[in-house]
Amino acid sequence: MTSNIFPARRGVVIGAGPAGLMAAEMMAAAGLSVTVCDHKPSVARKLLMAGKSGLNITKAEERTKFLNAFTTAKGPLEPILNSFDAPAVQGWAEELGQNLFTGTTGRVFPTVMKASPLLRAWLARLSDNGVELKTRWRWTGWDDGTPVFDTPDGMQHLPVDVTVLAMGGASWSRLGATGAWALPLRDAGVDIAPFAPANAGIAMKWSAHMGAHFGAALKGIGLKSGTYRSRGEAVISARGLEGGGIYTVSRGLREGHPLMLDLLPDQTREALTEKLAKPRGKMSLANYLRKTLKLDVAKIALLQEMARPLPGDAADLAKLLKALPVKHAGLRPLDEAISTAGGVKFDAVDDGLMLRARPGVFVAGEMLDWEAPTGGYLISACLATGRWAGQHAAAWAQRD
Q: Which of 167, 180, 318, 368 has the fewest CB atoms within 10 Å, measured from its CB?
């Protein structure tokens, strides 16, 4: 409860995405006077973009499996994710009036499949709790410890007791995540891992005959790159290969491992060899593969693109179908990636996500050096880290 004698402590949240809005909610609930600043003319643009294909807010699965999705960052993230796990995320969304459903893979969505109803309800709750929102306020750094902003009314200083930074990663810059915050933080002595694309598509230099297959989906395939594996689909596009299956293994490609596809993961190599040993007669190889293995046109086209001329031996062709090496031109550019690897290293923050180099400044969301595949993990972790940073920021501001 805030004191009747002393004014409420002031906090600022810089960045109005899921992590920032959650931090603001926690700070306001603790009695702070909170201002949220964002350099765009509207808030949560990346959240709204995610909602265009269905807002996947979390993943309902066994806790250890959920944590393992965060690979090398699961250690520092574990207490944070456990404090606001998938059931808690669902409860929070339902409190905002959102009916939810869980898909067959455990992905959790609002039944309306959009982000805008949830965002409207959230912003209304924040407003009711006294949170002030300032748009077109671009943070430029500090002046003697005070956050400074470039605004439509000129440069503004905003004296506060505590700050939460939640400005996102460095992908989809048109939606607000530019990574420009790295420079003032480095100047302040914060250790930052280099940015890299995560959940990214793969660039391909297709031959002319692949143009007929742009937009086609490679369904039900297995993908492998290093230790990263996926079972799903990929979409053939003019730019390369995209889709959930590709995004899940893109980290392996970034680390320098080859990409291997299993075009028929439900069939063993031995079974395929047996089928392919049957006489082909006068059929073209493409028709033979389609009729004998029920291999669709898109998969046949990719097989020929990657391995023409195909081997005539049944065993060798079966081996290729089960482990097709994909010749590619690397990951698509960082700005096209769904999320960002790199950012503020966990060694640079304490257990409450406060910067060791700048006491009173906390960090949340994709600014931190973690990554995870799509499927509910990204938004869930942004909400959890925002909540954690907001709670600890409020406690720090009120510590005396």
A: 180
